[in-house]
Automatic annotation (TrEMBL):
Its cofactor is K(+); Mg(2+). Coiled coil: none annotated. Its EC number is 4.2.1.136, 5.1.99.6. Keywords: ATP-binding, Isomerase, Lyase, Metal-binding, Multifunctional enzyme, NAD, NADP, Nucleotide-binding, Potassium. Residues 232-515 form the YjeF C-terminal domain. GO terms for molecular function: ADP-dependent NAD(P)H-hydrate dehydratase activity; ATP binding; metal ion binding; NAD(P)HX epimerase activity. K(+) binds at N61, D132, S168. It comes from Calderihabitans maritimus. This is Bifunctional NAD(P)H-hydrate repair enzyme. Binds 1 potassium ion per subunit.
Length: 517
């Protein structure tokens, strides 16, 4: 599903009027009607007599609210409209709808001074439902002054709120909530979801999200170069490889996981098992020679390959010829789980990337090996996926973690475009970015997955899908979704605190089974 920024939405709005001659006031009317439908559903169709307080800002979001007021009045509801602006401040379509309401003798109060809040507080006490039409896509920064106080009052009274287009106080493009923000029961957003409704923390204020058609022509929407996407289950289902009944394990690829070091053997085991549970035909984990007996103990279906090691029992540069020779037998490499950041494995990774002859997923210490040497990624001759968590992304970009987290979409896109790789920037609402700047936001997953080894599992899932012939971008998108969905299934049973990475692997088969075609 496509997502939009405020700017893109404005352009759609303008083109609908200028290129398709859909008058903007028709769009506003439709927006209002869609909101009324949700309100009617909330009251099981019985709107008559319901006490509804509508809060309208000075822009077109407020205009939508005035349309809602008109239709609710006609439906017999007891409507009170609070304008967070002077009536003369309204322009265009919003002003037109205000005039209509004035002609209808609607109860309209302007909240322009602190003392006006008393009335708001009293009305809220007896209100059945609130309509938030204060700010929409025009909002930036933090709500302050009277609007902020009104938002706080509405939240404190705890009545159900229908947010028009966006909960007021939330930034459409970033999902940032820098001040008070409406906690909505429903958000009726127009045409396409705004990025900020999906990103954190904005997504926590949305309630039930309804994407409402307001008659912007589909051909106009499809014709726009919209580069933000929400990953959906149906889309992932359509991308999953089909299994031919006569297939044999050779058809489903061979994953080679390279990593492991003393005390960190579990990471390669998790990655290897996850790859197998994601449908790969064969999986081999390459570990320092001394650790191989321990790994063999832990593995059954997954094979292992002892690699040349240093005295410290980490993978040494001498392992490169062995690894290169083995590349002929595999379909994809996963580099990094538990590898350690000793000089030798770091050096090995930096050289391996230039010699890869199959796609690779680079994760964890494989990424830490590239801090300060990130240009190596640009010289790879094969498609790459990197799967940094925010700390690893900070090390790769030289930014502070907060800076990365503050601009997740921008940071992921810039890295993907500059380094020419698929970037999976993990975290709440993982962002997948392609070298062409396409963005895919993952809605699945939960905080229970913030546990050691969860990233190793994701590396295995993505590698397992690439082994079965998926393009690296599709494997990253689908793998991220499946990994999160398996975590969502696991947390139902294990809870957010008790969930461990192995629980995610255990749920992969049922998630995949539910998506097979
Ligand atoms: N096709 C569509 O998308 C349609 C959208 N509609 C509605 O229009 C709003 C966008 O309206 P706009 O006038 O651009 O801005 P807002 O109403 O969201 O904001 C009002 C006003 O608020 C000011 N402002 C911005 N930030 C702050 C702040 N931090 N504090 C105080 N004031 C702030 C700014 O000056 C804005 O002008 C969209 O959401 C839809 O609801 C159409 O009605 C239907 C078609
Ligand atoms: K709003």
């Amino acid at each position: 599903m496509k997502l939009v920024t405020a700017e893109e939405m404005k352009r759609l709005d303008q083109l609908a009027s200028s290129a398709y001659h859909v008058p903007s006031i028709v769009l506003m009317e439709n927006a209002g009607l869609r909101v009324v439908e949700v309100i009617s559903r909330h009251f099981q169709g019985k709107v008559r007599g319901k006490r509804i307080a509508i809060f309208a800002g000075k822009g077109n979001n407020g205009g939508d609210g005035l349309v809602v007021a008109r239709h609710l009045m006609n439906a017999g509801a007891e409507v009170q409209v609070f304008m967070l602006a002077r009536t003369e401040d309204l322009k265009g379509d919003a002003a037109a709808n205000l005039q209509i309401l004035q002609k209808m003798k609607a109860r309209i109060y302007c909240i322009t001074e602190e003392r006006h809040l008393q009335r708001v507080d009293i009305v809220l006490l007896y209100t059945d439902l609130v309509v938030d039409a204060i700010f929409g896509t025009g909002f930036k920064g933090a709500a302050m002054g009277l609007p902020a106080r009104v938002i706080q009052l509405i939240n404190e009274r705890g009545k159900p709120v229908v947010a028009v287009d966006l909960p007021s106080g939330l930034e459409a493009d970033t999902g940032k909530v820098l001040g008070p923000c409406i906690q909505a029961r429903y958000t009726v957003t127009f045409a396409l979801p705004k990025l900020g409704l999906i990103l954190e923390p904005g997504a926590q204020y949305v309630g039930e999200l309804i994407v409402a058609d307001i008659s912007i022509p589909n051909s106009l929407i499809e014709g726009q170069p919209l580069k933000h996407n929400l990953i959906t289950e149906e889309w992932c289902r359509s991308l999953l490889p089909r299994r031919k009944p006569w297939g044999h394990k050779g058809d489903f690829g061979h994953v080679f996981v390279i990593g492991g070091s003393p005390g960190m053997t579990g990471a390669v085991v998790l990655a290897g098992e996850a790859a197998l549970r994601s449908g790969a035909g064969l999986v081999t984990v390459g570990v320092p020679r001394s650790l191989n007996p321990v790994i063999e103990e832990k593995l059954t279906e997954v094979m292992s390959k002892p690699l040349a090691e240093t005295e410290g029992k980490v993978i040494s540069v001498e392992a490169l010829p062995q690894i290169e020779a083995f590349l002929e037998k595999v379909s994809v490499v996963a580099v990094g789980p538990g590898m350690s950041t000793d000089f030798a494995p770091v050096n090995m990774v930096r050289q391996l990337i230039l010699r890869l002859s199959v796609p690779a997923v680079i994760d964890a210490d494989g990424l830490n090996a590239l801090a300060g040497k990130v240009d190596i990624l640009k010289e790879a001759k094969v498609p790459l996926v990197i799967t940094p968590h925010p700390g690893e992304m900070a090390r790769l970009t030289g930014m502070a973690v907060d800076e990365v987290q503050d601009n997740r979409v921008h940071v992921a896109r810039k890295a993907a475009e500059e380094w020419g790789v698929v970037v999976v920037l993990k975290g709440a609402k993982t962002v997948v970015a392609s070298p062409s700047g396409e963005i895919f936001i993952n809605p699945s997953g939960n905080v229970g997955m913030a546990t050691g080894g969860s990233g190793d599992v994701l590396t295995g899932v993505i590698s397992g899908l690439i082994a079965q012939g998926m393009q690296v971008l599709e494997a990253a998108v689908v793998g991220t979704f499946i990994h999160g969905k398996a975590g969502d299934e696991a947390v139902q049973e294990k809870g957010r605190m008790g969930l461990v990475a192995g629980d995610i692997i255990d749920r992969l088969p049922e998630v995949l089974k539910g998506m097979e075609r």
